[in-house]
Amino acid sequence: MADIYEILEQRGFIQDCTDVEAFRELTSKQSVSFYIGFDPTADSLHIGSMVPLMGMMHFQRQGHRPIAVIGGGTGMIGDPSGKSAERNLQTLDQIEENIAGQRKQFELFLDFSGKSGAKIVNNYDWLSELSFLDYLREVGKHFRIGEMLGKESVRARLNSDAGISYTEFSYMLLQAYDFRYLMEHENCCVQCGGGDQWGNITAGIELIRKTIGKPAFGLTFPLLTTATGQKFGKTEAGAVWLDKERTSSYDFFQYWVRADDRDVERYMKLFTLLDLEEIATVMIEHSSAPESRAAQKRLAFEVTRIVHGEDEAKKARDAAETLFGSSEESLAEQLSKLDNKEVQARFPDTPWLSFAATDLDEIATLRVFTEAGLVSSKKEADRLRKQGGLYLNEEPVEKVKLSSADFPHRINVLRVGKKKYGLVEVSA
Q: 151 or 269, which is more confident?
C-alpha cells in the first residue's frame, strides 16, 4: 500500500501525528478504519470542512475505510476548542434537521461501496444510552483534572472573560469515549481532525490505552488562514457553504478565483485531486502571466467540479468568462446574441426582470434595482445612486427616472458595486 502519511504530508495536510513511525508502518501494510467528527451546527457543511473531507478522500483512495461521525450527541454540548464563548445549545430536532442536510454532502467526497466503503454514524446513538453513573465510572475515573486543565482548548477558555462551563469541560471526555466506542465496535484505530482537536484526540488515545490496551493514533490537519491573515472560508457575506442553495455555484467558483497568488498552489494541493506534477505545471504557466489568474481559474473549476458537479462547474466558468472575458463587445451585447435558455444557463443564480419596451418610459431607477433584489430597499438604492454605485450596461446611473432608450439591448445588465449583477430583458 502507498504511504498515506507521505501523500498527506506532500500536499500540506499534516500538522501533528502521534507516533509517526508506528502510524506509517501500520497504514503502509494494511487497511485501517479511521474517523473524523463533524458538528451538526448547520444543515450544510462549509468550505472550512473541506480540509478533513479531502483528507478522507485521500485516505480512502489508498484503501482505508472512513467513518464520518456526526456529533448528534456532542452537538448538544458544544466543543469549546477554538471558541471564545459557549455555543447556544441546540434542540434534538434542530440537530436531526442539520444531520439530514449534511449526510448528502458526504456522498460528494466519499465512496460508500466496497471493502473500504465509508460509513456515517451519529454519536447520539451511543452517548444517549450512557448513564451519568456509567460516564463517571467508565470515562471520568481515567482522567486527572490537572491534565485536563493543561489542554490548550480548556486553558484558553479558562483565561478568557467567558470562562468555561462544566458542560463544555466534559466535551473532551465524551469525544474520548467516541474513540473508544468506535475502536470496540468498528475496529477504528485512527482519529483525524483539525489542529484545535489535538487535546481531544490524545484524550481518546489515553482512554483506549487505559481501558482496552490497544494502540491508537491521532493525526491533525492545519487550521487555514489566507495569506492576508483572514480566516479561510469567510467573506463579507459570511461563510462559503457547500450547499448551492446557500452559496450559488457561481459565487462558490468566484471565491476560489479570488484566491491570493500566495495561496493558490497550497489550495490546489489541499482541495483538488490534481497530482503534484500537474499542479507544478499549472504554477509554472501561471508565473509567466499571473494577471490572467490561470491557476485560480483551474483551482476554481476543479473544486467546483468536486462539490457541485461537472455541469455546474462549466456553467460557473462560462458565466465568469462572459463577465470578465476580453471580448470587445459589451456584456449586454454578448448576452443579447444568446437565447434566454443559454443566458439563464450561464447565469442560473442571477436576478432576471422582464419588461415590455413601452413599460420602460419614465420608470423609476430605484424600482428597477429594488425589484431585481440587488438592494434591500429604495432608500439604499437611492444612496448608492448618489454615490455612483448603480450601473446599467456598465455605465453609472445618475438619473432618477429611466426610459426605453436606456435599455438599448434585448438583454441589459444591472450591476451594484463590483460583484452583484442582474439582467433586464426588454420585449417589443
A: 269
Residues contacting 100, CB < 8 A, separation 6+: 43
**pTM higher than 0.85, yes or no?**
no
In angstroms, the CA 252 to CA 241 distance is 8
The contacts of residue 189 (CB under 8 Å, 6+ apart) are 26, 32, 33, 34, 183, 214, 215, 216, 217
CA 297, CA 343: separation in Å to the nearest integer?
A: 21
Residue 205 corresponds to which cell in the numbers above?
488515545
Q: How many CB atoms lie under 10 A from the CB of residue 379?
A: 11
Q: What is the rounded CA–CA span in Å between residue 108 and residue 310?
A: 12
Per-position DSSP letters for 261-330, written without gaps between them: HHHHHHHHHHH----HHHHHHHHHHHHH-GGG-HHHHHHHHHHHHHHH-HHHHHHHHHHHHHHHS--SS-
Range from 85-89, 316-320, 403-407 that averages highest in pLDDT: 403-407
Q: Distance between CA atoms of 137 and 28, rounded to whole angstroms?
A: 37
Residue type, position 408, single letter: P
